[in-house]
Amino acid sequence: MRAYKIYNEQNAILGRLEEIDEASVGSGDVLIKSHYSSVNYKDALAATGTGGRVMSRYPLIAGIDVSGVVISSTDNRFKTGEEVLCTGYGLGVSHDGGFSSLCRVPGDWLVDLPHGLTLYEAMSLGTAGFTAGLAVELLELNGMRPDQGPVLVNGATGGVSSLLINMLGQLGYIVTALTSKIEQADYLKSLGAADILDRNTIEYKSRSLEKPLWSTAFDSVGADQLSWLTKTMHTQGLIASFGNAGGIELTTNVLPFILRGIRLIGIDSVNTPMQLRQRIWQRLATDLKPKYLSKIAYPIEWTELPFHFDRLLHGTSRGRAVLDISGN
Length: 328
Ligand SMILES: NC(=O)c1ccc[n+]([C@@H]2O[C@H](COP(=O)([O-])OP(=O)(O)OC[C@H]3O[C@@H](n4cnc5c(N)ncnc54)[C@H](OP(=O)(O)O)[C@@H]3O)[C@@H](O)[C@H]2O)c1
What we know:
The chain is α/β, with parallel strands linked by helices. The chain contains nine helices and 16 strands. α6 (about 255-260) links the parallel β13 and β14 (about 265). The mean pLDDT is about 95. NADP nicotinamide-adenine-dinucleotide phosphate binds near residues 42, 131, 160, 268 and 317.
């Protein structure tokens, strides 16, 4: 039994693969034999201590999501042998996380694996897929429909965005994928993107409003790109803001809001209430299940974790790395 544990040694954040036993993992009502976790941008920040501290205490097992099978439970909602998944809350941030052969969590954090998903598919989606699904749901609640015009997804080759492009394409949206990796155009088109926009061709002007281009946008980048998006939305445009891969700043002005009525909608996958969480997972197993999930996600082994942290931090990764914990 193994875990990837993060230490703070004289202000240097270091990760180590080490042997664990049942007594050494987390607290909570339900003990899980982990089958899969996944490598998210936040995991890369947490495991390397990049960009400020993501973890609130050390040492701590990393991994902000997990899927597996219940070994024992004092919560009567979960029985031994049931397949479950967990994303968000304190997992891998303030509570021992999913990069571990064993995971102990509060039953309040667990979702039954929905019919239509395997444990591997659940972590191919993982936090990224849940965030993508939540963004689609919340924008639909705000009136998003396929007939309203072009949709932009930035950070397009990333985990959340690759999944979003596939989900939106199969729902009938006309998606433009904004990327720094123009050489990945064929990959993005194969997921459902209708057009590709090269990040290097965007001109960030100082005007308060620019030519309207998008009816809806999904932003994983923040900073200059989000600022540009606010100014290039059609009247009544909707923007889902869920990421900060390019920075946390947002410089804009009020004219897009008061002259075009745009709406900027924040997406928080960590604290989503359980009823909505369960609904999103049901959708991820049905109408939002990406047809090309196996093209987006790929399995990795324990020893490959640092390599994937590095790729995420340098913006050079593509799709989703799924940690095969039990060697399935
Ligand atoms: N709000 C939430 O609950 C929530 C949940 C999950 C993730 N997130 C956030 O969403 C973002 C995406 O997560 P992810 O796991 O999909 O990460 P990811 O796989 O690393 O994707 C991020 C993508 O953004 C682009 N990018 C990277 N660095 C950039 C830079 N400096 N400037 C502009 N673009 C850059 C790259 O795409 P291209 O090369 O194709 O442009 C990269 O593939 C992260 O900021 C993450 O923290 C938030």
